[in-house]
Amino acid sequence: MSKILIVEDEAAIADLEKDYLELSGFEVEVANDGKTGLEKALSVDYDLVILDLMLPGVDGFEICRQVRAEKNTPIIMVSAKKDDIDKIRGLGLGADDYMTKPFSPSELVARVKAHMARYERLIGSVVEENKVIEIRGIKIDTTARRVWVNGEEKTFTTKEFDLLTFLASHPNHVYTKDELFSEIWDMESIGDIATVTVHIKKIREKIEFDTSKPQYIETIWGVGYRFKV
């Protein structure tokens, strides 16, 4: 049974999320403050973390940063703050998704299932194919989920790796941001293109010699992105 950690200081919200997730077959633990949530996230191997942004003790940004430094556990960040800057910051720290309160519990369950199903399918297909992609100095080992740039290994979050691998597997094909969101996150974007934009920016910082003049992932203005070979 997949295990999920909810880090949420509002007990009523945490209990509601927990009930819906348990009804969907997940094992759920709850932490009601940042310090406890961080300790649990680092010490226990959860399959996914639902992380509130505003928490007593340690905020969601710091928890996300520390967890991502050690683990690739999928993280869904939730917050009542609607500012794009908070979403961009959260995704930039390695969160896989960002939901703005209020949202329906059923939507949360759907996103949890999508993230976990996507990850499991990728792991399964990668092991079966045992595929290594090499393009102009970039080597992507899809079996070990490792990336080297000109011989130097780089660390990628789960979604960064998935997005890079997808684009590199379909060179010279132009994808819109909506198409990439749907492919990597298994959901329609509903206009939420910031997620893709931030992940592309983080990938470029790791693979490009000059991010202002990208040689690998090109922006096709007014359309989307393509991986150039």
Structure description:
α3 (60-70) links the parallel β3 and β4 (75-79). This protein has a five-stranded parallel sheet with strand order 2-1-3-4-5, sandwiched between helices. A four-stranded antiparallel sheet has the order 6-7-8-9, covered by helices on one side. A three-stranded antiparallel sheet has the order 10-12-11. The protein has helices at residues 11-23, 34-43, 60-70, 84-92, 105-129, 158-169, 177-185, 194-207; strands spanning 3-7, 27-31, 48-52, 75-79, 97-100, 132-135, 138-141, 146-149, 152-154, 175-176, 217-220, 224-227. The chain is globular. The mean pLDDT is 87. The N and C termini lie far apart (42 Å). With 229 residues, the chain is α/β, with parallel strands linked by helices.
Quick summary of this structure?
By secondary structure, the protein is α/β, with parallel strands linked by helices. It contains eight helices and twelve strands.
Keywords:
single chain; 229 residues; alpha/beta; five-stranded parallel sheet; four-stranded antiparallel sheet; 8 helices; globular
What's the SSE blueprint?
Elements: E1 3-7, H1 11-23, E2 27-31, H2 34-43, E3 48-52, H3 60-70, E4 75-79, H4 84-92, E5 97-100, H5 105-129, E6 132-135, E7 138-141, E8 146-149, E9 152-154, H6 158-169, E10 175-176, H7 177-185, H8 194-207, E11 217-220, E12 224-227
Parallel strand pairs: 1-2, 1-3, 3-4, 4-5
Antiparallel strand pairs: 6-7, 7-8, 8-9, 10-12, 11-12
Helix pairs in contact: 1-5, 2-3, 4-8, 6-8
